[in-house]
Design goal:
- By secondary structure, this protein is α+β, with helices and mostly antiparallel strands.
- It has a domain of 170 residues: 2-Layer Sandwich (Alpha-Beta Plaits).
- The protein has 24 helices and nine strands.
- Strands 1, 2, 3, 4, 5, 6, 7, 8 and 9 form a nine-stranded antiparallel β-sheet that branches.
- A hairpin with a 2-residue loop joins strand 2 and strand 3.
């Protein structure tokens, strides 16, 4: 081998070891690998960083913005809240969750889908006496399985698509993966449910202790707005009875007070609802259409801040109503926390004390303006707390559907369609430029771009051909189906040990070379690589949604192995079998 190939071997081995050790950020490891390849003379700077201008990276950034637009407008909030209404068994709850998650994740980024449904699943489990263990891991698996169905489903497919385009080969079609992904979902979801009901069942005392009681509890008043879709619904039907870490204390309607609040109380415009509970759920509730802070006008560009009242603050001993937050701070109090104490009064009647933590709705410059004032000890902006732009929800949905349609019909390349849709969403007011910037996961984009550069080095130095020759020498006499299975198995192992995008980028040139040596159509090998690398189920390390449910579900590493490995193997058999039939191997 040439010196450049040896350098590449060393760099790839180092990347592999560091990613498996999981002691450093993956983007730092891969960026360091590109620097090493440039210093070693393997790649020119333009070659090393060409991945940052790759259409796959651009498309992924646009899709992140579109997903952010759906989140900012609350387009999916209401359907999600009603998802588990009336469900009484864990099996039915799991089927509903996974049945919705899989098709959504075929078109949307998996992470926000799982983030949106996790608290709903956990709240349902807590209020029905079930364990979240039976729900959260299947939820993550459903997101991973659904992502195999379309080009949009996961960054892994976009990495493969970008690498193909760089080599002058046809990229992946938007629905080219569907004939393989749909059978995988049809087999994988029922198997996941069957295994979950047998392997993940836990007694209540085995489930992780919910830390809701340990988190700060606020008292907050919200009113039912005049145009609220909740008007005329009962408390139960409005989804206000079983909220994660939040309790509806009372409802005031003029001189009438409902306390305790029964599930059959019908909501009316102007009703004042007093809640007690954790910050995250109060923020989620304030974002819901039809509810607004009781003592404040809704200002669309305001954000939430936490502020702790100082000992010498002029607010001490003054009620919230008398304090005139609107005139004094251009802000409004949304909720109050007082060391875990339950405050029975209406929000406006609460007399403030030293050490009270206020949740304030204020303009984005509030923290900067009052940071040095003696009124507060600490002011911090609460991330992701802006009220959703509900009126723009149809626009956000239209942008996403338009991007899918334009790319599927080959009217525009995916990158162009995604960037156009993202720009339309921002200009139409679905989200601000700042929110669009925050919606983009820079870490993933850097990993994808660097992984493409690393794959280029593996190919340019002849290392991919060398490995392929070795595979062909060992497996040269194998039937094409077995050769395809070897590539799939390699992808399945790699994706569990390193990131899925890095696994796809490293394996693709080898898969192409193996197919070339055997004189076979490279397309099934390309698709096998993309599918195998995207199905990370056997460990929590290979996919972000697995890590998201790891702690809250109280899982052990072995739970992923016992659940994920059978599903992964079954999906592998389906994938290889389907590719064999489609391409006549």
């Amino acid at each position: 081998m040439a010196l450049e190939a040896w350098i590449t071997v060393g760099v790839v081995a180092g990347v592999f070891a560091l990613l498996v050790a999981d002691r450093f950020p993956s983007e730092g490891i891969l960026m360091g690998a590109l620097v090493a390849l440039m210093v070693g003379g393997v790649l020119e700077p333009g070659e090393a960083f060409a991945g940052f201008s790759n259409p796959a990276v651009i498309a992924l950034g646009g899709l992140y913005v579109l997903t952010g637009a759906l989140r900012e407008t609350g387009a999916l909030d209401r359907p999600a809240q009603r998802l588990l209404a009336g469900v009484s068994t864990a099996g039915r709850a799991r089927r509903r969750l996974t049945g919705v998650t899989a098709p959504l994740s075929a078109f949307l980024n998996n992470t926000p889908i799982v983030a949106m449904l996790m608290p709903i699943a956990a709240s349902w489990a807590r209020h029905t006496g079930n364990s979240p263990r039976e729900l959260l891991l299947p939820l993550s698996y459903a997101a991973v399985l659904g992502g195999t169905c379309t080009l949009f489903g996961t960054a892994t497919h976009l990495v493969v698509d970008g690498a193909l385009v760089e080599r002058g080969l046809p990229g992946l079609g938007v629905f080219e993966l569907a004939p393989i992904g749909i059978p995988i979902v049809l087999v994988g979801l029922p198997l996941t449910g069957w295994l979950a009901s047998r392997l993940l069942r836990a007694q209540a005392d085995e489930a992780p202790a919910d830390d809701a009681e340990l988190r700060r509890e606020y008292t907050s008043d919200l009113i039912v707005t005049a145009d609220s879709p909740l008007s005329g619904s009962t408390v139960e039907d409005a989804g206000l009875r079983h909220l994660a870490g939040l309790f509806l204390v009372r409802i005031e309607r003029g001189a009438t007070v409902f306390a305790p609040v029964g599930p059959d109380v019908v909501l009316r415009p102007g009703d004042r609802l007093t809640f007690a509970g954790i910050l995250d759920t109060i923020i989620e509730l304030q974002r819901r259409r039809g509810l607004a802070p009781a003592d404040a006008e809704s200002v669309s560009d305001w954000v939430l801040h936490e502020a702790v009242i100082s000992r010498g603050s002029p607010l001490v001993g003054v009620s919230i109503r008398e304090a005139n937050f609107r005139g004094r701070y251009n802000a409004a109090v949304v909720a109050v926390h007082r060391h875990g104490d339950h405050i029975e009064k209406k929000l406006g009647d609460i007399v403030l004390r030293h050490g009270d933590t206020l949740l304030l709705q204020a303009n984005p410059g509030f923290a900067r303006s009052f940071r040095d004032a003696r009124d507060f000890y600490l002011i911090s902006e609460v991330a992701e707390a802006t009220r959703p732009r509900h009126a723009r929800a149809p626009v956000a949905l239209g942008c996403m559907v338009g991007v899918i349609a334009l790319a599927a019909a080959d009217v525009l390349p995916l990158a162009a369609a995604a960037v156009t849709g993202a720009m339309v969403a921002v200009l139409a007011g679905c989200l601000s430029f700042g929110s669009a910037r925050r919606a983009i996961d820079i870490t993933v984009l850097v990993v994808v771009a660097c992984a493409l550069g690393l794959g280029r080095a593996v190919e340019q130095t002849g290392l991919a051909t060398l490995i392929a020759d070795g595979v062909s020498a060992v497996a040269g006499g194998l039937d094409p189906i077995l050769l395809l299975a070897v590539i799939y198995l390699a992808g399945m192992v790699l994706t569990e040990l390193i990131t899925n995008t890095a696994a796809a980028a490293l394996l693709l040139p080898i898969a192409l070379a193996v197919a070339g040596d055997a004189g076979l159509d490279p397309r099934p090998f390309v698709l096998a690589t993309s599918i195998a690398a995207s199905l990370s189920l056997a460990t929590p390390l290979g996919y972000q949604t697995n890590m998201m449910v790891y702690g809250p579900g109280g899982y052990r590493f072995t739970d992923f192995l016992r659940m994920g490995l059978p599903v992964q193997l079954a999906c592998g058999v389906v994938a290889v079998g389907t590719l064999t039939l489609l391409y006549g191997l």
